[in-house]
Write a structure and sequence with these properties.
The protein is an alpha+beta fold and 168 residues long. The protein has a single domain, classed as 2-Layer Sandwich (Alpha-Beta Plaits), CATH 3.30.70. The protein contains 4 helices and 6 strands; from the N terminus they run βββαββααβα. A hairpin with a 2-residue loop joins β2 and β3. α1 packs antiparallel against α3. It is globular and about 40 Å long.
Amino acid sequence: MRGYDYSQNGFYFVTICLKNKIEYFGSIKNGQMIINKFGKIVEYCWYDLINHYGNCRLDEFIIMPNHVHGIVEINNNREGAGLKPARTDLESARTLINKKYSLSEMIRGFKSFSSRRINEVNFDSVFRWQRSFYDHIIQNDGSLYRIRKYIKNNPLRWELDRNNNNEN
C-alpha cells in the first residue's frame, strides 16, 4: 500500500512466487505438499528469519510447488540480534536491538538467503524468485483466521490454483 509504513507492528500475509512459475519445491500428492530438497532449504530459510530480524515473528506458512504463503508479524516491542552480528559496546547493541526492520527487508533477506543456498547445491540452473512479492495487511482477528485457514488448505486447492502450470 503506497505510503504505508511496513515496519510498524502488525500481521502481514505474503505470497512469494518463483520466476516463470517453475515448480521447484516439490509436488502435491493427494492434497498434501511433498517438499523436496529445495523446498527444505526454503523452509529452513523461512524459519531462520527470526534469527536475523529482531522484530520478526512467524505465523502460518506453507511451501507450494512454485510459491510460498506466509504470515509475518512485525513486533517492535521484542528484542533480537538483527541481521549483523551484535557488537560488544552497549550503545551499538541498543541500536541493533531497537532496529525496526520492514517487511520488504525481511522478504529480501529470505529471498537472498534461500537463493544462495539453493544455488550452492543446484548446479543445473540458476534458481530465481519472481521480482517483488504480494502482500496483504491483516487488519483484524477474523481476517487473520481466514488467511491462516487459506494457507493450511492451499494444497487441497492446487488443481484450481492460478499458479498451477498443469493443464486441468
